[in-house]
Amino acid sequence: MKRHLTTTGGGLLGIFLTVVLLESGASVIQGRQSAATPEFTLETPDLSDVPDLGGSETGEAATDGGAQVPIDAAENSAADPEGKSARDIAPEQFGLPEEVTAKPLARVEARQPLSDPVAKPEPVPSVLRHPVALSAGLIQFDGDRLLQLDGLVSQTAERTCGANGKSWPCGIVARTAFRNFLRARALLCDIPKNGWEGTLTTTCTVNNTDPAVWLAENGWAEAEAGSPLEDKVEAARKSRLGFFGGDPRDFSATPVPLDETAVPEEPQTDADAREPGL
């Protein structure tokens, strides 16, 4: 029991000594800081030492004759000795002077280009073989080169036509009609001298026949604004041809039924006679 009390008392005594040492060290540090930093006293100037400005409290300045003038006017006079009025720099006052806006505007000649424009290569007639019609007016050559007939609006094979709830695939029918017209014949077209990539819009002929004219006359095309083919497309529209008419496919004809009596019987072979069950 005595040993336990001795241990407890020793621990408390150690804690007390530690606290005393910390407090004494803090007091020494504060004393050194107070000795190193002198006290600073802020002095306020006496108003009697300030010279009389003669009207500064009211926003006026005294002139040589004793008259009071506003401080702003005095500053402007000092900045502008000739007595000119200061320009207003308020944002709402920004703009062109009146003498500029009152005069009529004059057109100035355009600046000449710094370099000569690059001339486009002149097209040359070329024979294009193995055409594939992708739609009415759009032809594919060599897998990646496309040719759109000039003067016609580009069409797609997915186009549908019809009215009164009845529609028919006029885009596919127009493509089929165009393929039947081409019949894989070679075309004579005006193309750039060095060939082309992508889609080229130009004119062609097939056996001295313009395919664009053929499409317009049969109603399988729509003309661009200002195209010479507008009259032909309008005539086909009035005649209800192609896109502007009904489905040209004839589904009224029914297949002729097969007359079994008219089909001759096949002669029976020796194998059939030997194996009647087969």
Topology:
Layout: H1 2-36, E1 60-62, E2 68-70, H2 71-79, H3 98-101, E3 124-128, E4 132-135, E5 138-141, E6 145-149, E7 161-163, E8 166-168, H4 170-182, E9 187-191, E10 199-202, E11 204-205, H5 211-217, H6 230-238, H7 270-274
Parallel strand pairs: 6-10
Antiparallel strand pairs: 1-2, 3-9, 4-5, 5-6, 7-8, 9-11
Label this structure with key terms.
7 helices; single chain; 3-stranded antiparallel β-sheet; disordered C terminus; 278 residues; alpha+beta; OB fold (Dihydrolipoamide Acetyltransferase, E2P)
Question: Summarize this, please?
Answer:
This protein has 278 residues and is an alpha+beta fold. Helices cover 29% and strands 15% of the residues. A hairpin with a 2-residue loop joins β4 and β5.
What does this molecule look like?
The chain is an alpha+beta fold and about 280 residues long. The protein has a domain at about 125-245: OB fold (Dihydrolipoamide Acetyltransferase, E2P) (Beta Barrel), CATH 2.40.50. Helix content is about 30%, strand content about 15%. It has seven helices and eleven strands. The strands form four sheets. It has a four-stranded mixed sheet. It has a three-stranded antiparallel sheet with strand order 3-9-11, with no helix packed on it. It has a two-stranded antiparallel ribbon with strand order 1-2. The longest helix is centred in the first third of the chain and has 35 residues, at about 1-35. The termini are far apart. The model is unreliable at about 260-265 and about 270-278 (pLDDT under 50).
